[in-house]
Amino acid sequence: xxxxxxxxxxxxxxxxxxxxxxxxxxxxxxxxxxxxxxxxxxxxxxxxxxxxxxxxxxxxxxxxxxxxxxxxxxxxxxxxxxxxxxxxxxxxxxxxxxxxxxxxxx
Length: 106
Prior knowledge:
The protein is α+β, with helices and mostly antiparallel strands. The chain has three helices and eight strands; from the N terminus they run H-E-E-E-E-E-H-E-E-E-H.
């Protein structure tokens, strides 16, 4: 997973109506229920979705969003599991959060 690409996607998702990924331009849409910003994209042959964090959620990510931080969650579309989070442009993979090992980036 390319963390610099995820960081770029998160920044564009929060500040624009489209995400530029290489030669592709992807629309930023709103989710149906809570109107959160979201964009679907492909990276290394896998499909992912970046979703703005819902500030109303009682999680640590929701708390950061309520404080004004830009929080974007990244979900693997095939497994429907969240795989990474971007907080103000700094991306961490969830496996890396558990291990707390910065050299474990893939």
